[in-house]
Design a protein that fits this description.
three-stranded mixed β-sheet, 7 strands, globular, alpha+beta
């Protein structure tokens, strides 16, 4: 029934003119749009700092080299999650980094990647198979972690993918991002896909979302899985997003048709409530522009086809503001 509704909507909207926007750099972790011929940089070198660090509430100490170890990163709070499968804790040398490095052992992830806990096993496996098949690319060619996910998926077995899916799916998504409507935002600098606050200076927010760690060092350097994010969004964005999410605004289908009225997902359809607005925006844009493909993406294409970048911003702001 839901898929029939989408198909009916697509026919109703057929022929509507749509002017493509460039990739919104703020959603991809950059300050400016990509230049012609822009390419993803290779992964940076491994950190070699051996001085020991710790974080509030943790009993362990790790060096920065251990924290950033691609094949065995720090696990600050091992009692807060189930036992990690080998691929989550250690990856598979030389081609698969530990899932827990980028997404954290608790699966909360960061603005430059994805929060993967609380997803159904079916959706997780389908997503990894899309990466494996080359169906998940980035509209901004500088975003290298999308290419890395293809590499990881290709080199993971079906059993390893299933183990990771079951592990992350066993944990519940909890509030992680605070949405703040504002005319200004802290001045930030891009750093490996994240926006890190610089000092105390504020600057006009404009028509963008600035999603930044509450504590830049805790997130960027120490990979503290308790360090949350704040998303600064334009004033009025949440209300505008609510109108699009709940009624479609004549441009799209109400998101609750498939994702649930509370945006917490239905069956294999993923939850949106309380998730990263940067991530949500770039997924909609990638789908719209044909960089994200696959059988389920085809169902989303008519839903996002006529959205402007501002519409996506507003939808993402509203979804991120909802209680998961």
């Amino acid at each position: 029934m839901k898929f029939t509704t989408i198909a009916t909507f697509a026919l109703a909207m057929a022929g509507t003119m749509f002017a493509a926007d460039p990739p919104p750099p703020w959603a991809y972790g950059f300050e400016t749009p990509p230049s012609p011929g822009a390419a993803a940089p290779p992964p940076g070198p491994a950190n070699t700092d051996q001085s020991l660090r710790t974080i509030p509430g943790a009993t362990a100490q790790y060096s920065r080299a251990q924290i950033a170890n691609r094949f065995g990163p720090a696990d600050w709070f091992p009692s807060e999650h189930p036992q990690m499968p080998p691929v989550v804790a250690h990856g598979k040398q030389p081609d698969v980094w530990a899932c827990g490095l980028c997404h954290y052992p608790n699966g909360k992830g960061r603005a430059e990647n994805a929060g993967v806990n609380g997803l159904t096993v079916e959706y997780f496996i389908h997503t990894m198979n899309d990466f494996k098949a080359g169906n998940r690319k980035s509209a901004d060619p500088r975003k290298n972690n999308t290419n890395l996910m293809h590499q990881f998926a290709v080199n993971m077995s079906d059993d390893e993918i299933k183990a990771a899916a079951e592990y992350f799916g066993a944990m519940k998504w909890t509030p992680w991002i605070k949405v703040v409507e504002s005319k200004t935002a802290p001045k930030v600098k891009p750093s490996n896909g994240l926006f890190i606050v610089e000092g105390n200076e504020m600057e006009p927010l404009g028509n963008r979302i600035v999603e930044t760690p509450v504590n830049g060092e805790a997130t960027e350097i120490l990979r503290d899985p308790h360090s949350p994010f704040t998303a600064y969004v334009p004033i009025g964005a949440v209300k505008k997003g609510e109108a699009l999410v709940t009624k479609g605004g004549g441009k799209t289908l109400a998101c609750g048709t498939c994702h649930g009225a509370d945006l917490k997902g239905i069956g294999p359809v993923p939850p949106l409530a309380g998730r990263s607005p940067s991530y949500l925006t770039r997924q909609m844009f990638d789908m719209q522009q044909g960089f994200r493909k696959g059988s389920w993406t085809e169902l989303m294409k008519p839903v996002v086809e006529h959205l402007t970048t501002e519409d996506m911003l507003n939808i993402s702001a509203y979804a991120a503001s909802r209680t998961p």
